[in-house]
């Protein structure tokens, strides 16, 4: 865990929720024309996504909350949190079981937020929007405090159904972010046009450094290339 770059996340403005009245019940696999509109899900409801260091417990029952929701491609999960906790989004069950993304080199694992851990201080409040772009099982947890927050209940899994499919703005997402990024919502989604998210280095709202496996591989490749160039120049000088 120590190898991950930890940067505080800037507060992002909450965009208006999609003004759609959802039916009381929905078919398990509705046809695209009959599927509900895209919507935003506030994780944990009023409890938010927080960890109480004094009580050594999370602020809500996230698995229970998730069991009461239905999720579709193109929806957003809204994490109301602070820089004491992080949000790890993955489709890797092993990473989820370990509460640790350190050795996960897959391109579908992302870390959002600060995750400084500790708690009990005056942490910066943040709102983190995470789009659902992978159908099937998705996992979420906080890796702060060396995974202790995850082990104490800051974790849940969801089943993402197809619904209407991805909106055009999410069908061609930007390249994988670099170290630890808060990705801004693409134009045309429920969160576009609010002006509350500032682009950072590649895809962030705080200029911070987020992570994906692809981003780490690219960075490592750049370092190896630089070393090779240096060796070649030294050989030419010696000749």
From TrEMBL:
Residues of the signal peptide: 1-27
Region: Disordered, residue numbers: 163-216
GO molecular function: electron transfer activity
PROSITE patterns membership: PHYTOCYANIN
Any one cellular-component term (Gene Ontology): plasma membrane
Domain (Phytocyanin): residue spans on this chain: 39-162
Bias-annotated ranges (Gly residues): 193-213
Pfam family, one: Cu_bind_like
UniProt KW keywords: Signal
Protein's name in the database: Phytocyanin domain-containing protein
Organism: Panicum hallii
